[in-house]
Design brief:
Layout (H helix, E strand, L loop, with lengths): L1 H14 L8 H22 L4 H24 L1 E5 L5 E5 L2
Antiparallel strand pairs: 1-2
Helix pairs in contact: 1-2, 2-3
Length: 91
């Protein structure tokens, strides 16, 4: 089952950049679903138990949503070196 899911998920994630005319909400949803998918696939590949798989899915969803929002604003977070961050244009 893993040998089928990983190539399918990879193909789906590679197709996402083609969706440029989506609304902000649609971008957030797609980013969250893609992140959750990557989290679950990673947990499954590492033979994680159910609790860790759920945490990986939630963490992936959060990360995917944040990446989608970052693409919308064009801003990135940069570490200041003292534990704080600043936002600015992506380089």
């Amino acid at each position: 089952m893993k040998t089928i899911l990983i190539p399918l998920a990879t193909a789906a994630l590679l197709a996402l950049p083609a969706c440029d005319n989506l609304s902000d909400t649609e971008n957030d949803i797609i980013g969250g679903v893609a992140g959750a998918t990557v989290g679950v696939l990673t947990a499954r590949a590492l033979n994680a138990n159910t609790n860790w798989t759920i945490l990986a899915a939630l963490g992936g969803a959060v990360a995917g949503t944040l990446v989608a929002r970052n693409r919308q604003t064009g801003e990135c977070a940069y570490a200041n070196g003292d534990g704080t961050y600043r936002a600015g244009p992506c380089r």
